[in-house]
Design a protein that fits this description.
Length: 235
Amino acid sequence: MRYTRQALKQDRFAETAADAMHWTVEHRSKMINGGIALAVILLVFIGGFWFSHHRETQAADELGHALMTYQAPLRPASIPADPAQPSYISIQERAIAAGQEFNQIASKYGSTRSGKFAKYFAGLAAIDAGNEKVAEDHLKYVAGVRDDDVSSLAKLALAALYRDTNRQADAVNLYKELAAHPTRTVPKVTAQLQLAELYAPKQPNDARAIYQQIVKDNPQTPAGQLAADKVQELK
C-alpha cells in the first residue's frame, strides 16, 4: 500500500510536470523555455527521484503545486477570476505568485533535489516578474550546487539572462563551459546551438563553424538537421 501511495504521488506529479512542459513550449520566451522543459522532464524521470523519504515527498508535492501556479492561464482584466480555476491577468502577476511558492519551497527544503529545482524555478519566475537582479542571484546559487543536472540548467538559464542583458562575454563563457562539461539535462549540442545562435548576428563565421561541427557530430538527428539549416541561412 505504501508503494501504491508513492506511485500515485509520482504519477500525479508527472502529470503536472508534463502539463507544465507543454505550456512552457507553447507560451514562454525562446530564451528560457528550453531550460524549463528540460527541468520538468528531469523532474519526471531522472534516476533516484522516487520519493524515497518523507521530506522529499513533501517537497515534490509542493513543487508540483507551484508548477501548476506557474502554468496557470491568463485572463483579460475585465473577466472576473474563477474561484475554481486559478488565473492571472498578466505574466508578471503570475510569476510573482509562483515565485513566492518556489521561494518558500527552496527555503523549507533546500537540501532536497526538489528544493534545488524550486530555487531554479524561482530564478525563472523572477525573470518573468522583471526582477533581473533577483533572478541572477537565484540562478547563480543553483549553478553552484553539487548536482550537475540541476546546476547545468541554472547555468543555461543564466547564460540566456546574460544574453538578454547585453552581457555577451559572460554568456559565451557559460555556453562554452556547458559544452565542455555536458550533463544529462544540458547535452553538449544544446550549449553549442545556443552559442552559435549568439554568435550568428556579429560573428557568422564562428557560428557557421559550430553548426558544421554539430552536423558532423550529430548526423541524422533533429539537432543535426537544425544545424544544417542554419548553415544554409548563414551563406
